[in-house]
TrEMBL record:
Superkingdom of this protein's organism: Eukaryota
Subcellular localization, as worded in the UniProt entry: Cytoplasm; Nucleus
Descriptive protein name: CCR4-NOT transcription complex subunit 10
Organism the protein comes from: Drosophila arizonae
Location, primary (coarse class): cytoplasm
Role summary: Component of the CCR4-NOT complex which is one of the major cellular mRNA deadenylases and is linked to various cellular processes including bulk mRNA degradation, miRNA-mediated repression, translational repression during translational initiation and general transcription regulation.
Keywords linked to the UniProt accession: Cytoplasm, Nucleus, RNA-mediated gene silencing, Transcription, Transcription regulation, Translation regulation
Length: 640
């Protein structure tokens, strides 16, 4: 943003000429005029330095954004010299270099995907939003709303919109929007299908087995207040859609509004209409010749999101791969690309989505390599660490399959087996059980920390009317956005994720021979308040096995009594992606492990009786091996 400052008539005219030359992209002439102002002894040195830094940035083709950032940081750190007038921080009729510099720094960090830093830089301006002139207030509000959406702070974004509407009158009411009612919250994570045109890009996220795409619209430092107002209205609609507010979206022929309509279809679980809407955007832009790499990236990614949601994993993976190809065309060399182009890069989020698809396709090596990209940026996401652990476990099990029948009798006495593993460094990111243990420790630590600070929203009866929301600071509103780039999660989703982490951690610990940790994790799992039947079964199995390996067969029997299986929900077992597809299979596995416990206690007759009841193929080979082992033991006892 290039700022004009009021001074004496001659200096003001020179600055107006410089501003005109800047708008005409005559940057050399603009710099000459700024130099004349400086030689005339213009007192607003900070404003001249700011404008010169911005002009030099545009003169280099908007490539030297780090140089611009350094200049802006120096501008904020410099103190006025003795006798030099202090430039006020508030913009009221007079432009402030420090205010605009702070805004520009936030824009740079935003385009570099450093959203947290951008929010920190913008906070002093947002807290004084009412004191800023209208144009600057609109710019700051637009960027703040973009940052809140980019960081999945959807509740705060909604509250901020109410503040802008009822306190500052910067936005009007959205058609059909009602703050007091919302669409029913789905039990699974949702995804948006909004694609942006030449002025935007998409941010794809993948919660659990579903991805989410959220448009990030352009926030250029030179955007005028009128254009900024239209973006603010578009962001207002997007915020309502993401918060599942009933809002009427009237298409006007632009790809942005059409994409919002597709996003609304997706949230309403009308996946077919969402896909048709995206394809219509692609066809219309192709005919008009307005297809850009970022538009192709968004459409391909969001089509992949839709197919991922309906479990067409191979098709989803193909769309994600196409999205990566388009994204690479756009950002082939990030070191030599413009700031805006850098802001359009979405390979990190798309790789997250592709990793999820690869997990479902049982291609763990490819999934693991995909997850290595987003974990560098979203290292505080416990779900991402858990997904990496899943890939490690799946790869280990795949390597184990060819030799699964070549084991000793002793190693066949338990359901999961325990064998020595080579010394692998947990610091090396490779799909091994050792690295899986590290991933699960990270996931568990983060999840417990986030659960302790989980924010419970007020009940509808306690919610203030939007017009009265100015009585409460919108900044006090919180979001449980612990799994960025995924959407905020519910308490139930948090507890389900913790259960999955405990189960996986117990399994990996058993494989690595850490029976104490395996038992501890299994006990934590069984103490869960909302434990699913499938996890209840796993908790008892892992606890029983850990106790057997610790020579505590008596305690293990308490976890392996087959009676508890009868109380399990068969549907919960049948819908899981695992081998135990029925209560009969679960009964046979539990009985087999109980037979192993009897054998370890030298109660061979009880063990043989249980083995005689095993009929399911899932345990037939192991049961035969155990039966032979028991016969040998009985024969040896008889000889003595």
């Amino acid at each position: 943003m290039f700022r004009k400052v009021l001074g004496d008539d001659e200096n003001y005219n020179l600055l107006c000429q410089a501003h005109e030359q800047f708008n005409n992209r005559e940057y050399d002439r603009c710099l000459e005029l700024l130099q004349q102002l400086e030689t005339k002894g213009e007192s607003s040195g900070l404003i001249l330095r700011h404008n010169r830094a911005v002009v030099n940035y545009y003169k280099t083709g908007c490539l030297e954004h780090q140089t611009l950032l350094n200049e802006l940081e120096k501008l904020g750190n410099d103190q006025p010299a003795p006798g030099e007038p202090t430039v006020p921080l508030a913009l009221k009729n007079v432009g402030s270099a420090l205010t605009v510099a702070r805004y520009n720094k936030a824009v740079i960090y935003f385009h570099r995907h450093m959203y947290g830093t951008a929010l920190d830089r913008l906070t002093p301006l947002v807290t004084r939003l009412e004191a800023l002139e209208k144009q600057m207030a609109a710019l700051v509000a637009t960027l703040q709303l973009q940052l809140l959406l980019a960081t999945n702070q959807l509740n705060r974004a909604e509250a901020f919109l109410d503040y802008l509407q009822y306190k500052l009158n910067l936005v009007a009411s959205a058609p059909g929007a009602s703050a007091s009612s919302s669409l029913e919250e789905p039990t699974t994570a949702t995804a948006s299908t909004a694609a942006a045109a030449a002025s935007g890009a998409a941010s794809a996220t993948a919660p659990t087995a579903v991805a989410s795409a959220t448009p990030i619209l352009d926030s250029s430092v030179t955007r005028a207040a009128g254009e900024n107002g239209s973006i603010l209205r578009l962001l207002q609609l997007l915020t309502h859609v993401l918060n599942r507010k009933p809002v009427v979206i009237t298409e006007d022929g632009t790809p942005e509004i059409a994409a919002l309509k597709a996003q609304q279809y997706y949230i309403m679980k009308d996946f077919q209409m969402a896909a048709k809407q995206l394809m219509r955007i692609n066809d219309d832009c192709t005919q008009a010749g307005t297809v850009t790499p970022q538009l192709s990236t968004c459409i391909a990614n969001n089509m992949g999101v839709i197919h991922l949601r309906v479990r067409h994993y191979a098709i989803a993976a193909k769309f994600f791969q196409n999205a990566l190809r388009f994204d690479q065309q756009l950002t082939s060399n990030l070191r030599q690309c413009s700031l805006q182009t850098m802001g359009l890069a979405r390979s990190c989020e798309i790789m997250y989505n592709l990793g999820i698809a690869m997990l479902h396709l049982r291609r763990p090596k490819e999934a693991f390599q995909c997850f290595l990209v987003p974990v560098k940026q979203y290292h505080s996401n416990p779900r991402l660490w858990y997904r990496m652990a899943e890939a490690c476990i799946m790869e280990h099990e795949a390597q184990k399959l060819p030799g699964k029948d070549r084991h000793t009798i002793d190693s066949g006495l338990n359901s999961t087996g325990s064998k020595p593993y080579g010394a692998h460094s947990t610091a090396v990111p490779e799909p091994t059980l050792e690295f899986a243990a590290l991933c699960l420790r990270n996931a568990l630590t983060l999840s417990l920390q986030y659960k302790a600070s989980f924010y419970m929203a007020a009940s509808p009866d306690e919610t203030l009317d939007p017009k009265d929301s100015s009585q409460q600071l919108w900044s006090q509103t919180q979001d449980n956005n612990f799994c960025n780039p995924s959407k905020p999660i519910s308490l139930e989703s948090m507890e389900n994720m913790l259960d999955a982490i405990y189960a996986a951690h117990s399994f990996v610990s058993l494989r690595l021979g850490d029976h104490v940790t395996a038992l501890e994790m299994a006990k934590h799992l069984l103490q869960s308040e909302r434990l699913s039947d499938a996890h209840k079964l796993l908790g008892h199995m892992y606890a029983g096995e850990a106790l057997m390996m610790m020579d505590k067969s008596g305690e293990a029997r308490d976890h392996l009594e087959p009676t508890f299986v009868n109380s399990l929900n068969a549907l919960d077992l049948e819908t899981r992606d695992w081998q135990l597809k029925s209560l009969d299979a679960a009964q046979n596995v539990v009985r087999y492990n109980l037979a192993v416990t009897f054998a370890l206690q030298n109660d061979f007759q009880a063990a043989k009786s249980l083995l005689g009841t095993l009929t399911h193929p899932i345990v037939s080979k192991k049961a035969l091996t155990l039966h032979r082992y028991i016969e040998l033991k009985i024969s040896a006892t008889a000889l003595h």
